[in-house]
Amino acid sequence: MRLLRAPAVKEATPSSDTSAPALVDAPLLRLDDVHAAYGRIEALQGISLEVRRGEIVAMLGGNGAGKSTTLKTISGLMHPHTGRIELEGHDVTLVPAHRLVKLGIGQAPEGRRIFGRMTVLENLQMGAYSRRDMAEIDADYDRVFGLFPRLQERRSQSAGTLSGGEQQMLAIGRALMGRPKLLLLDEPSMGLAPVLVEQIFRIIRDINAQGTTILLVEQNALMALQVAGRGYILQTGKIVLADTAAALAQNEQVKKAYLGG
Amino acid sequence: MDVGTLTQQLVNALTLGAIYALIALGYTMVYGIIELINFAHGDVFMVGSFVSLWLLADFFGLRGPINNPAELVGVLVVAFVFSMVVMGLVGVVIERFAYRPLRNAPRLAPLITAIGVSFILQNIIQIWRGPAQLNSPQLINVQAGFRVGSAEVHWISVFVIAIAVGLIIGLHLFISRTRMGRAMRSTALDREAAQLMGVDINTTIAVTFFIGSALAGAAGVVQGLYYGYTFFTIGFQGGLKAFTAAVLGGIGNTTGAALGGFTIGFIEVFASQAGYANWSEAIVFSILILVLVFRPTGLLGQPTAERG
Questions:
Q1: Has the ipTM of the complex gone over 0.85?
Q2: What pTM value is reported for the model?
Q3: B183: nearest CA in chain A?
């Protein structure tokens, strides 16, 4: 199938953070023909996409489509063997993960990956690891506890003892503590009860409304397309469809493959 | 066994255990963060004892006890700082050139490399100072002490125990309270997730090697002060016992390593006291086997998998 260009969508909520020396017209994130491989297996076969400031962009696709690999190349845990990744117009293709955090990329990874043997508070401290602005970090604890009151109740508890939903909240809260410009969410609804899924998606919307741009990877396409402005559909390491979320939700192929009819 | 002997042996056990504990901490820290049993670690301890010997005997020209308290404290501080910094740096160099290139290789590769590093360190010392046992100046008079009931407690024992306990508490505070300590723990728990928090894992692993090796360096100074000698193969046995201590306490767990060190000290001393001196090692390793069979995670170990 042909690679489709991302349709233009006007900025929803402009990011509050304008301190970085960003090129004004550049999208927050741009991937250009990114190829990445595990050994000889090419998991990404030319991914091109854009995320603009203030958007929620959904990335959908089946197992092994390359969604998590795409996130890994964006967060720097993997590097593409060809192609280019730009953050605010600057080339970050080969920047290692720990430095990208400082440049504004935060991730709540697949499977949550919280630090089970550390307390809830220590997990959040880890989220703020790359920051030195103590006063603002304190304000961000309040913000995270505002979004997730359960975490405040359990702040001194070992994170491994939290329920699945609480762990997901902690994973998202931890990523927010880095005050990211771009928040990568990998399968935030996985393994959660429907009522919790609703709650998580409501919070994703709140986080976006507070000015954080979000790239959302989901199996739950229905929910993802409800919160997202635009979406990309991946299949075996390629983008096969790119459109507004509304159009994707109406697309026959998408309905058949991801929306259960 | 009368009370006097018991007290005496208790002090001996604590002193011996303190040395094992200092070395065991390095094993357990390195295992915790990169899951490598660093077989060269015992030799880092051995090199530490030679670095301390060089500083005290060759550089300062000291031969025996220092009686002036101020001078004694000054020389001890210099000896510990010097030996710990030098060995810390040696540890960082070993990690950088021997282990980091193999970080994503199959487990067996760095393990064999560690054994290789162990031989390299032994050979370097053998070439530098020869294979014979060398006397190390005992700066603290090993005869001086005080009486507790009928037991004679030597100041050197008090000093060794205090140094070890102080370093163990310091390490614990560093790991549990500081930003770098949190980085180390998070890297040990989930390396990728730590990177996503902005942790530079290369720096963090290097710091871990620095601290672990510095503690072995401190144990090297203690070896000289307490026993008054060193030679190029003491790292093998000391290392093996300390490794056993780390496993006994639950490898990867620093409190466990300290506890394991003292436990082994007790087993050894009381086995000797009971008349089984020749059997003390057999007893130590039998207990290790029993622990591994009935409690594979060690005394304080937790199951490793914890992602959900």
A1: yes
A2: 0.90
A3: A126
